[in-house]
Amino acid sequence: MNHHANPRDTRIVTGPEFAISFTLQGHDFREVRIMNLSVGGCFALVGARTARFFLPGVTLDDLVFLHPDLPRGSIRAAVTYVLGYAFGGEATDQVGMGLQFLSVDAPTRQALEAWVDAAAAAGRTDA
User: Fold this and answer.
1) Counted domains in the chain
2) CA dist., res. 96 & res. 33, Å (int)
3) Mean pLDDT for the chain?
4) Would residue 1 count as lying in a domain?
5) Predicted model pTM
């Protein structure tokens, strides 16, 4: 199932216990922290040393949520943008990237929609 991220999708602010894993060009990335999550995508943090691999348009395979309350189905995603963080003019060790979910199977999408709806009802949105 294809779904293109909509900027109006409800985004849920996530805590430090929310992470994803995925494969990029045969390399496994584990315990990648996500800052927010919607039905159409998420915002993730990667180490600055590996940021060069995450150019806009790059596809991430086998993306899986690592939080026990989120569905475990495999998702295909694409990097839509990359942001570097700087505090006081100095670069930090992390870079943020926006991810758009390209394909999500129906059970995973339904479970994700239910989780986002419940979190939004509890007031965890960032909008």
Assistant:
1) 1
2) 10
3) 88
4) no
5) 0.86
